[in-house]
Amino acid sequence: MKPPRHRWLFTLTATVITAVFLLPVYWMVKTSLTRPDRIQAAHPQWVPAPVTGENYATALGYSGLTRALLNSLVISSGVVALTLLLGVPLAYALARIRMRGSGTMVLALLVAQLPPAIVLAAPLFILERRAGLADSYLGLVFADTTLTLPFTVIVLRPVLRAVPPELEEAAQIDGCGVPGVLLRVVLPLMVPGVVAAAGLSFLIGWGEFLFGLTLAEGPDIQPVTVLLNSFVGQHGTSWGALMATATLISIPVACVFAVFQRFIVGGLTAGSVRG
Amino acid sequence: MPRTLSPSAHRRRAGCLFCVPGLAFLGLFLAYPLLYTVWTSVHDVELGQLLGGEERFNGLDNYRAVLDDPAFWHSVRLSLLFTLASLLLQFTLGFALALLFARPFPFNALLRSLLLIAWLLPPVVSGTLFRWMLDADSGAYNALLRAAGLGALSHDWLTDPSTSLAGVILANVWVGVPFNMLLLLVGLHTIDPALHEAAALDGANAWQRLRHITLPLMRPVSVTVLLLGLVYTFKVFDIVFVMTGGGPVDATRVLSLYVYEVFFTFFRFGHGAAAGLLLLVVPLLVGVFYVRRLRREEETTAGGAV
């Protein structure tokens, strides 16, 4: 193997690339902490001095931001709950129970990920209106779950397949019904997969924009992504407050990723490459 | 519990029950809306009809209207350009990064995770962010150009119709690179290091090993990554909508934004449904191709662990 000095050279290269690549993220946080009168300058400061919370105060003073953050939290939690509730049993059945048509169902779930969101948003706009779901949390949770559910089942299926069947058989012999087996034997073993699915579903629900834009009308249920977009129109030059808002939206994303990182990366690659 | 059922029949019945809620949901909120779109696309539906008028069957009129619309073809061209440029750039950069990160070095995992942040940020956030980065007067990229003595190149990227698409592509590539890197990295790790060692012993240099070992072995993974990228990129809406709204004028109005406008700005639902279904053609074709490949792969690796 190569001497360690050589390896540090790779670390250096990778660090420089990562720094250049993530410049926009740094710039977002930097701008959000810079005094508003110093933001729009031909020679911007690379490090904010003095650091200020002023932009955050301005952003939180804009009408609707706290409400929208709360809306997004409610919607994405709902998405996680509904996705797991529907997805875990479905994935289990497709992974572990020999049934006619399960191959077709897996195929259908792959196909279900293909339609562009706009193709779905258009009819949902009409249908949810008719069903009385328009402009409600539930309507948005349902719409978002069409994105997360197929994905979740695809991610969970290989995880479930890896559970040794002997364990299930043993539990069945001990008198557990199928739901009991799922709950007591399989579920604990699939925790990493479920965590990955929950984390990814949360991120998708939190970042979702198009359904929020088309299906939510008032500020009462509008997600924060939609609000950020309308801020760009309303406060187009207040970049400090805009970047503060963007940073606030990114914080939960960073937290979820930091905590569930290993699970998410594993789940993601399992879902995408193996299908 | 009926005792007459054998364990396996019992399991099958439970399996069906487990499938019902999820499938019912997808039927109601995914399949039905798509079928409804098909129905709408052959009817004359505008806002008036939605409010209680009668929808009139009009055959293929909506499709004809879409195909006769120069704006539609403009959007098709933009979507193709946007998709191809994004794919090419994000795949190449992703591959280069994957080659770097496939080597063991200190802080590899940490740096790799940091890169993923770009992919995980909500597209609305990245879009807003790049609007600011590309801002004419105070944007970071123009400031960098000025600092490098290239002030003449600084530019109002997003409001100039000749560069706005490039600006949007830049943002989209930024989001796509980490994802490409991650998937390609998984592929690189499946290559047996013994192959490289043997080739090195035979005197092959790094470039020859890349060219004759890595690239051929990465072909299947690369095709998968490119197909996935094609589907994802073709559907992109958020980032373009937030950065330019399709403008200036129509310089970045890719297909998904065209459908959005027809539907939600002009409320021409029939026309919009037809356009939306035409937008579905490319991902569906790719999907068929992808699934057939997966099937083939599954056949050749049948008996494997997963």
> In the CATH classification, which architecture of the largest domain in chain A applies?
Orthogonal Bundle
Shape of chain B: globular
Instruction: Summarize the main sheet of chain B.
Output: 2 strands, antiparallel
Estimate percent helicity of chain B.
over 70%
Distance, first to last CA of chain B:
33 Å
Fraction of residues in β-strands of chain B: under 5%
Per DSSP, the total helix count of chain B is 14
User: Which value, in Å, is the CA radius of gyration of chain B?
Assistant: 25 Å
CATH superfamily of the largest domain in chain B: MetI-like
Largest sheet of chain A: none
The quaternary state of the protein chains shown equals heterodimer
Report on this model:
The complex is a heterodimer of chains A (275) and B (306). Chain A is mostly helical. Chain A has 14 helices and no strands. Chain A folds into two domains: 4-57, no CATH class; 64-274, MetI-like fold. In chain A, 77% of the residues lie in helices and 0% in strands. Chain B is an all-alpha fold and 306 residues long. Chain B has 14 helices and two strands. Chain B has helices at 7-41, 47-50, 61-67, 70-101, 108-120, 123-133, 140-147, 164-189, 193-201, 206-217, 219-235, 238-243, 255-265, 269-300; strands at 43-44, 56-57. The two termini of chain B are 33 Å apart.
